[in-house]
User: What shape does this take?
Amino acid sequence: MPLFSCRKRWLLVPLLFTGVQAAVAQGGLSQASPGPGTQAASSACLSCHTDIGDKLKGHAHASVTCQTCHLKHEDFPHLDVPKPACASCHTSVAKDYARGVHGQAVSKGNGAAPDCATCHGKAHELESTKTAQFRTSIPDICGACHGDIAEEYKQSVHGQAVGRGVMQAPVCIDCHGEHSILAPSNAASTVHSSHIRDTCAQCHGNVRLAQQFGLPADRIISFDASFHGLATKSGAETVANCASCHGVHNIRASSDPKSTINARNLPATCGQCHVGAGQRFALGRIHLGPAGNEAAAVRWVRYIYLLVIPLTIGLMFLHNFGDWFRKLLRLRFNGNAPGNAPGNAPKDELAQAGGGSLRMLPGERIQHVLLAVSFIVLAVTGFALKYPDQWWARPLLLWESSKSARGITHRAASVVFMAAALAHIFSLIFSPRLREHWRVMWPRVHDATEAIQNFLYNVGLVKAFPGRSSHSYVEKAEYWALVWGTIVMVGTGLMLWFNNLTLRWLPKVFIDLATSIHFYEAVLATLAILVWHFYFVIFDPEVYPMDPSWFTGKSPRKAPADETSS
Assistant: This one.
């Protein structure tokens, strides 16, 4: 009779709970809260399977009816009821698992690979994944297979924080994922070299967490602004990332003697890529802080350039706009072209040639072409290296694969630039004719007076045109600015190019200084070319649409003479 009674109960289950089964078929019941119908449906089964009922209490599947998972439950006796498949309810999770390394191992016949029960427990004793108890148990769950890694993790800052009950501290699944766990070599993995920055940024880029736990809030920002961060942003996979320096599972505080970023261990850590770095001098601060919080030397460089750049370019713009406006009025409305002022005629024989003054010898024109082309390429590729995510830089990134096309092109252009500079130096040394011609470029006290008077005239503070020399402050300022800029850019550029040698002999702050100076000097030089040089060779009404001296050697420009007030 007991068997008959049990059989009667099973015959009634399909009739009483058809609505419940319909909801299950739609995939919604597995997450529903227990109700009277759910309890009644399970009680029909649990009247016989009392041990299962005790196990389900307080566990994740307590709200799920027995027939949701156990097929053929209506057959009696149901000794051949198949083992339930988790994928029948958790379809998306099952797909993620199948893609992961664990699912792939199972599909290849590895019986030891973890399945759902390995991590979550038996179906009737399933712990909720949202509890603090489950989260703190994750390192031990993973450690059942990855024992050595789990021990490293427990000694790390993250593992120790979890051990103290800090639930916001990352555990295995926060970095590797939950079910779709991919190998680090897989480009789609969250711990692939191209994604390490984003994975770490989940916590170290979170301002709220930084404030709550007193973490430095600038680590991701400073990394992004560094060479390593910029290279990572543009897709480089061999450049150092967070794990390269801080470790993977063995991440320790910098004050820990065993930490890879401890001051004593930095030479070995950085030496993995930069051989000899930090052997003579302490490397010092690695992450450059935000503006105003960086090293003192770098901060002063920034202050100086942020003052010099707008002041210099602003004065250039005022000077040239005034010059353009006065010449526009005079040439287009007064009909008077400037003539050679008495005493201002060029004294070297090159400027006396017919058909316009000869400004550049053939060798100089070749040097100018090399200089111009290399400078433009340097400017474009240099700023593309600094701002790889800008729309104008993206076409350059299309050429890149494992190597940086921008970096290679930038260095190649720098070689051409330096070759043009050396050619100019040697031509001055070995060509007396050229040396005699360039004597007029030597600065004189009169140049400063002439520059001030012309500036005041251009901005309308002086009515009478003061006159301008054939090779005036305009050409001299540009030439000597080029000389100075070449020295600075070549010097800092070589320090950055041969950074291993720099780090071997100098503290890291010199690399930081070189980086800052190289960037700001490039900004200043580019703006000066656009505002100063391009005006006098293109937009100046006297030579518009272009001064052809860079090609023919002769310029139509005449020395300004008795220019009357407009």
